[in-house]
């Protein structure tokens, strides 16, 4: 240890009352050791002990860089940067101690060998108490009971006896070395080897002279310490250790006096001195060679750095030139704009007197117009008041007329339905114009269908096969039983003719489902929301007829037997018709398309069951999804589902199908089409809970008039005509206190049911009073008259 390797300290007053804590460059582990010391020695002064290893970039021991090749200011700058990092590290530890409320100090030493540096500081300051790490925190475990760090082991073995040392890891005490050199753990078995003396050499790169001092350590006769000092102005001090322990026992004192004479001792000493000098010269040559190699490498590196700096400055110069050119162009453009603005300003100043005179004239004219407008507004207010009063009277009269008209119509319809059950054959001939082919609207398994008017009511007349085993009374009895089965999604039977075996049903304007799926007879394709709603309505009707006592099985369910009314509400026709014809006619089916909807079980045993309708419903559901022909539709949909490409078979004319609902309907339809009736789902307990929630995603009938195609002639409802509660076109609009307009009956029912909040905003209403919205009512009337 030389004079250049000075121990530097700050804030140390009394070593006897100070606990020294050895810390390294790892701040996290250093703070862990400090935390243990602060907790264990509360109230005592804490001093941070640190051994700094200088940057090897300027180490003459390793032959790195020479001061003669590297500029002096660069060397000093790098050394200063290294010292700044050292002080920054120590200040972090001191700040940690200060935050704990403890007065702290710091002591540090610059040396290559950390553990020897710690020993040197202990000896120099006569340190009595020292805390240091036993191992890295990554080695910590609850079973850790011995030192893992080589530095900790070295300090434990070589520290002076007057210093007591605590070894910690992860804020836990691992071992303690007391002042009598005893350990509190299994380290007692470790021996304390003698200090391995070595050859210490210090190099100072100077102006060309060297001062070599060779000292012999008297306390260690088997070893020699060679200290080489090469003095200079720029290079820091470094140490190297050359262990020169002899392998022969010739120098041992006892054996030397017993076996050799004085002449032999002199020759041996002379030979050893020659050997040491040879080793020293070889080492110096190695140092020179290392320094020359590093000089060459540094020259190459500096050349590369200089080239990079040159390129960067060249790029910066070009960039500045480009920016200067752009700024120059921008200044030229600003000058042109400035000249244009000056010209415009001059023109405006020339026109200013003319404009001022025009403004004066306009102000006079404005005052005159204001007076006229005030008079016109007053007149308009009086006319509007008279108009509103007359409009109220007119609206009240229209409401009364409509009410009486509805009462008369309802009474007429009820009278027709009650008294219009038995129809004569002559009425049938007259309604069909003697079965004119132009009156024929369909033909199926159970006979032909004609349209006609009977007693001023438009009906659809179904002519059943004339032959059969039923008498007229049996036929009429069964038909009357079917007429009593009423459901919103079943076509109403309103008359029968036993003589001609014919049935009169209500007439539905929009034809059957098959026409819309096949887009024939100028029918528009149905939107996917309509299709889902139709599936829900068919399911509801089938559950109703199956639950009838006795149970009614349709037996001929297919798209041609599903009719659509003016609002595209679906209704099933021909239910129970197979009960009115003979078994022979019932089993006769020459239509291959119709046979696809028939349950395979019926083909085998000739018996219709509830599962037969479930099978037909499944095929219809697939038709609604794909609009493809029924033949092979089950196979196509199954393949699409297995390949994960259901969208390839969905009907694109129905709009953008929601994939999740479409897949759910497809799987449901395939389960209904199982060949084994036992594997088909139950309509009430399985199909209905699956399909009924989809009703919520369908728009109201009045908002989805026909389809997604929306031709120019389609009736589109303005959204402000629709009641937010009923979701239908308003007939008696009223304004509530929340500012929204509702159907009169809807908002009144809302308020009379105990609500005092807005149906739209859920905020409390200031008042429950309602104001008729006559302006909106007239707009709705005018809109309805256009269609």
UniProtKB/TrEMBL annotation:
Pathway in which this enzyme or protein is active: Protein modification; protein ubiquitination
EC number(s) stated in the UniProt entry for this protein: 2.3.2.27
Coiled coil location: 310-351, 380-407
Binding site for ATP: 462
Residue ranges occupied by any Protein kinase domain in the UniProt entry: 435-695
Domain called U-box: residue spans: 716-787
Enzyme class at the top of the EC tree: transferase
Catalytic activity: S-ubiquitinyl-[E2 ubiquitin-conjugating enzyme]-L-cysteine + [acceptor protein]-L-lysine = [E2 ubiquitin-conjugating enzyme]-L-cysteine + N(6)-ubiquitinyl-[acceptor protein]-L-lysine
InterPro entries: Kinase-like_dom_sf, Prot_kinase_dom, Protein_kinase_ATP_BS, Rossmann-like_a/b/a_fold, Ser-Thr/Tyr_kinase_cat_dom, U-box_ubiquitin_ligases, Ubox_domain, Znf_RING/FYVE/PHD
Record keywords: ATP-binding, Coiled coil, Nucleotide-binding, Transferase, Ubl conjugation pathway
GO-annotated biological processes: protein ubiquitination
GO terms of molecular function: ATP binding; protein kinase activity; ubiquitin protein ligase activity
Function, as annotated: Functions as an E3 ubiquitin ligase.
Protein name: RING-type E3 ubiquitin transferase
Originating species: Solanum tuberosum
């Amino acid at each position: 240890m030389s004079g250049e390797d000075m121990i530097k300290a700050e804030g140390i007053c009394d070593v006897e009352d100070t606990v020294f804590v050895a810390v390294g460059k790892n701040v996290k582990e250093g703070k862990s050791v400090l935390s243990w010391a602060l907790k264990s020695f509360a109230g005592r002064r804490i001093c941070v002990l640190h051994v700094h290893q200088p940057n090897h970039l300027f180490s003459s021991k390793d032959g790195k860089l020479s001061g003669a090749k590297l500029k002096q200011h660069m060397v000093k700058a790098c050394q200063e940067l290294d010292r700044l990092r050292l002080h920054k590290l120590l200040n972090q530890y001191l700040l940690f101690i200060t935050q704990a409320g403890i007065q702290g100090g710091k002591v540090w030493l610059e040396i290559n060998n950390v553990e020897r540096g710690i020993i040197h500081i202990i000896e120099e300051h006569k340190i009595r108490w020292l805390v240091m790490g036993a191992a890295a925190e990554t080695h910590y475990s609850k079973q850790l009971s011995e030192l893992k760090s080589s530095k900790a082991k070295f300090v434990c073995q070589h520290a002076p006896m007057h210093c007591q040392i605590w070894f910690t890891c992860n804020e836990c005490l691992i071992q303690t070395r007391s002042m009598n050199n005893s350990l509190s753990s299994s380290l007692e078995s470790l021996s304390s080897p003698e200090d391995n003396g070595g050859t210490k050499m210090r190099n100072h790169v100077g102006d060309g002279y060297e001062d070599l001092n060779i000292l012999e350590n008297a306390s260690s006769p088997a070893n020699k310490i060679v200290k080489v000092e090469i003095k200079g102005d720029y290079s820091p001090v470094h140490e190297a250790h050359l262990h020169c322990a002899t392998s022969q026992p010739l120098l041992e004192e006892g054996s030397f006096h017993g076996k050799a004479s004085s002449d032999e001792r002199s020759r041996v000493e002379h030979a050893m001195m020659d050997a040491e000098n040879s080793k020293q010269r070889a080492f110096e040559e190695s140092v020179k060679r290392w320094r020359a190699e590093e000089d060459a490498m540094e020259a190459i590196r500096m050349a590369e750095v200089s080239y990079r700096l040159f390129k960067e400055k060249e790029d910066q110069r070009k960039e500045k030139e480009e920016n200067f050119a752009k700024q120059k162009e921008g200044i030229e453009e600003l000058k042109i704009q400035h000249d244009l603005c000056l010209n415009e300003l001059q023109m405006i100043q020339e026109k200013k007197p003319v404009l001022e005179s025009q403004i004066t004239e306009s102000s006079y004219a404005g005052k005159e117009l204001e007076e006229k407008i005030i008079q016109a507004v007053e007149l308009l207010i009086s006319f509007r008041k008279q108009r509103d009063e007359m409009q109220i009277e007119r609206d009240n009269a229209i409401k009364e007329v409509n009410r009486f008209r509805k009462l008369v119509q309802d009474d007429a319809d009820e009278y027709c339905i009650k008294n219009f059950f038995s129809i004569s054959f002559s009425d049938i001939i007259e309604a069909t114009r003697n079965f004119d082919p132009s009156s024929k609207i369909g033909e199926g398994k159970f006979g032909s269908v004609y349209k006609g008017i009977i007693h001023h009511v438009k009906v659809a007349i179904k002519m059943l096969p004339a032959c059969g085993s039923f008498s007229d009374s049996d036929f009429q009895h069964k038909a009357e039983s079917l007429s009593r089965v009423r459901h919103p999604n079943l076509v109403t039977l309103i008359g029968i003719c036993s003589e001609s075996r014919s049935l009169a049903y209500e007439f539905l304007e929009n034809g059957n489902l098959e026409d819309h799926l096949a887009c024939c007879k100028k029918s528009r394709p149905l939107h996917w929301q309509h299709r889902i709603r139709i599936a829900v309505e068919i399911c509801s009707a089938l559950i109703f007829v199956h639950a009838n006592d006795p149970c009614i099985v349709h037996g001929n369910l297919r798209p041609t037997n599903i009719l659509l009314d003016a609002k595209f509400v679906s209704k099933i026709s021909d239910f129970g018709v197979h009960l009115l014809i003979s078994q022979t006619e019932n089993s006769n089916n020459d239509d291959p398309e119709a046979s696809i909807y028939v349950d395979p079980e019926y083909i085998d045993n000739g018996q219709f069951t509830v599962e037969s309708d479930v099978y037909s419903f499944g095929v219809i559901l697939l038709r609604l999804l794909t609009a493809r022909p029924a033949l092979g539709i089950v196979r196509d949909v199954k393949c699409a589902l297995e390949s994960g490409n259901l969208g390839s078979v969905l009907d694109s004319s129905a709009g953008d199908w929601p994939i999740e609902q479409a897949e759910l309907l497809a799987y449901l339809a395939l389960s209904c089409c199982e060949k084994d009736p036992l594997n088909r789902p139950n309509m009430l307990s399985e199909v209905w809970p699956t399909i009924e929630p989809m009703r919520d995603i369908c728009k109201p009938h009045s908002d989805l008039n026909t389809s997604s195609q929306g031709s120019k002639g389609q009736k589109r409802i303005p959204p402000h005509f629709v009641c937010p509660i009923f979701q239908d076109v308003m007939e008696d609009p009223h304004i509530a206190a929340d500012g929204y307009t509702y159907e009169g009956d809807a908002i009144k029912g809302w308020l009379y049911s105990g609500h005092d909040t807005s149906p739209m905003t859920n905020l409390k209403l200031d008042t429950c009073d309602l104001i008729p919205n006559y302006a909106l009512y007239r707009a709705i009337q005018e809109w309805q008259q256009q269609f």
